[in-house]
């Protein structure tokens, strides 16, 4: 569905951000540490473990680091910064940004701004990682290398670009991953760096990327959303809930992507747990009218009506 109603900020650049390129401009050290060459090198660096050996400590670190960071990808980059599906304090907002950037998936303004663009244009010619239009390679990884996709789409993410600390961490997007790299080394030595950090980062990359590629191809389509988004239970497990991608395209505002109890959504459960301690609050939920209509339509063997119709009828 190519509506923008869920997006809090749309449209054109305002004068206060016309110097947006300053935000995208990385320092020299940043370009080296988190640029394309390093991204490609990441795919081979874990092989260094052949020379240092692999320890159990490093393997455990790799697994823990994967799950913790996948949570940050979905809760921070996606559900908070791109969709504002819950609220938090300014301090925890920064922690979310830092945690997300430890994955080496660039600045939070870049990631979340482009994701808003994906929802505005999904599976049209303007969708920069459309599986339908561009195929698997381009939608999975190729789009990241394109020059025109390097800039931060600041016009789509002004609501967070107004915070200086978020601009800083976005511009210096190498700080978070390399901090974690050093910490991984200190915890488990060289195997901790090669396996605990680099291999874990590599797996987090490709697991995240399946949401741009495979969830627009594999799985079932509960809702007619005008694009190719799908729900797939296996991808929902590997990405902590993001595999309910057709649900998400239908009702983007929700903090919960598994709409029913049987649709496992680990990110949502953890967010709710953090909510118990007052770290996050005001979760946006799926309206009852949508859930009821969905069940009714499935029992009648029909596709649920477009979201706007269901919401209008339910009020
Ligand atoms: Zn989204
Ligand atoms: Zn999508």
From TrEMBL:
Can you tell me where the transmembrane regions are?
Answer: 40-68, 175-199, 266-283
Topological relation to the membrane, as annotated: Multi-pass membrane protein
Family stated for the protein in its record? Belongs to the fatty acid desaturase type 2 family.
Annotated Pfam families: FA_desaturase
**Entry's Gene Ontology BP terms:** fatty acid biosynthetic process
Q: What is its EC number?
A: 1.14.19.-
Q: Keywords assigned by UniProt?
A: Fatty acid biosynthesis, Fatty acid metabolism, Iron, Lipid biosynthesis, Lipid metabolism, Membrane, Oxidoreductase, Transmembrane, Transmembrane helix
Q: Looking at the UniProt record for this protein, which Gene Ontology cellular component terms does it annotate, in alphabetical order?
A: membrane
Which of the seven top EC classes does this enzyme belong to? oxidoreductase
Q: PANTHER family, alphabetically?
A: ACYL-COA DESATURASE (PTHR11351), DESATURASE 1, ISOFORM A-RELATED (PTHR11351:SF31)
Q: Main site of residence?
A: membrane
Domain Fatty acid desaturase spans what residues? 55-271
Q: Does the keyword Oxidoreductase feature in the UniProt annotation?
A: yes
Under what name is this protein listed?
Answer: Delta-9 acyl-phospholipid desaturase
Keyword rRNA processing in annotation: no
- Localisation: Membrane
Highest taxon, organism lineage:
Bacteria
| Record-level Gene Ontology MF annotations | oxidoreductase activity, acting on paired donors, with oxidation of a pair of donors resulting in the reduction of molecular oxygen to two molecules of water
Species annotation: Turneriella parva (strain ATCC BAA-1111 / DSM 21527 / NCTC 11395 / H) (Leptospira parva)
